[in-house]
Structure of Bactericidal permeability-increasing protein:
Amino acid sequence: IDDLAEIDYSLNSLPAVFRPYIDLDLKGIVYPAGNYTGSPYVAAPFAIPDQSDSMLYLAFSEYFFQTSSFAYYTAGAFNITIAEETCSYFNISTEIFGSIIPEVAKYSVTPYPVMLKLTATEIPLISLQQDSFTLEMQGSMEVFAVLPDSTTQLLFTMNVAANTSIALNIFDQKLMGSLCLNR
């Protein structure tokens, strides 16, 4: 897939060949690149509604998304550092945090740029529903002041839990998504 994850796919059963179509039952497992290990998840069978008005039907199971999440978590893809250049683009500084958290204002009288380190502390959970899917993430955020000599000083750490729902729709032959922060 990329430098962090690979996919192993194989037929679950022999292809079913019918006059108007061929049914291929593929099983895809995503795993960290170069480190094929067994998945901590069990694939559950699922059925695709019987329809015959399109040329191609493609379905992804919850198992595919779970193994993807596991592979990217194991590879460290959910650990992100937002450096001074990005923070300055959004104008995030100790002054902004100082207006929200009084202890930061006491420590940092002079405004300094900040660096954010976001880390997933658990494997993100993905669950599929009829018309959307839900993503639950647990993580931590460390906020550092970047001092004039380029050293950093930890300002604070916070734990973060997010639960979002994503609904996908097709409008004007384009796949569109809407994101809702549940908590």
